[in-house]
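Re: weekly structure request thread

Next one in the queue (418 aa):
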Amino acid sequence: MSDAAAAPDSQFRWYLAGAGSWFVAFGIQAVMFAYLVTTVLHAPPNRVGIAQMSLTAMSTLLLLIGGAVADKVDTRRLLLFCHAVAIVPALALAAIVYTGNLRYEWLIAYGLCMGLITAFILPAREAMMGDVIGPHGGHGRIQRAVTTTIGVTFLSQITGMFLAGFAAVLGPAPIILVQAASQAFGAFTAHQLIPSTRHSDHAHVNVGSSLTRIAAGVREVTKSYALLPVTILTLAIGVLYIGAFLVILPVLLRDEFDGHVEQFATLQVCFWGGSIISSMTISRIGNIVHRGRFIVGALTMGVLVLCLISIKGPLIALYALVFVWGLGAGVTISMSRTIVQEHAPPAHRARVLSVYQLGFTGGMSIGALFIGFVVEAVGARHATLVPAGLMALVLAGLLLGTKLWHITALRHDDGKPA
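Done, posted below.
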């Protein structure tokens, strides 16, 4: 590799390209999977929830192991391997759909395979960001890198969701092939990264069994005044907000608006479009000091949006509310990931980040199942009040029992609050 290609800025661009390729594929998957299980197979709400849970079940079980592995090996090689393997289930699903043999069981098998790959690629990618930008690259640099990455990944998701909308013309199978091609490009971008040396630089602390290393990462989270409340919130977001997003919204589209694939794509674009706008606005603002307060405000906005969705209205109103919900999600994700990147020790970075990601993926699994049965019991509109009320209780508990409100940016010269 040339010296120019090895330069930090060039490496960060390759990192962003790889992250973008994964999320283009993720965006296609988000639309196509929901469309296939909800509209094509016409599954009832509880089976929709179970199917959505399959996408995260394996990552819930194995994410902490994935973090321990990413701290132990060259993360560049791990990224390359995961992208290459992710091509296989996408090709298999495309073939099944094309031949007209789609069954509920095949979707579950696909979801389990992708969840397994996700368990290893997510902590590897998060840890690789720190390897590329360096642990203390100057005041606000970590936040800028995080928000730039979030903006790219959100834009890539929207691109994937936009492409998924063409399934109405081309059919689902060709769009799923585009997903496989995106994973192939991700493998190429990983090949362009220089090997990570963090695992060898900190080999003296990466000793013992996988369980020992996982426990060390969990201890880092539980003893931190900043990491602990943020991790608890990610779990609540996964269960309550993402669970609602994965189950309530697709069922609403099917039951009240016919559930065309373009509607699934538009709803996803509204949410992630709002997330892009807020995350890129934060990037332009610069270093934000009172990060905990921004998170509280954004999650409170989500509570209000869910309450408003419970009121029956036209499709355009649903799109608008989901867009506002996305604005809050962009703030929450930007601030929480910045906090975790700042506070995670380099030697334990992947493990700490895997604990953080476990909140999302584990919460998604539980939430999809839980919300599916809530929708079955009370209907999609009224079901939104359940996650809204529970999130309000979680926020109140963390504001009273932790230092969430007082989490601020660190000064990188001494590691203390700014």
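The beta strands are 410-411, 416-417. The domain at 9-199+209-417 is CATH 1.20.1250.20 (Growth Hormone; Chain: A;).
Next request, please.
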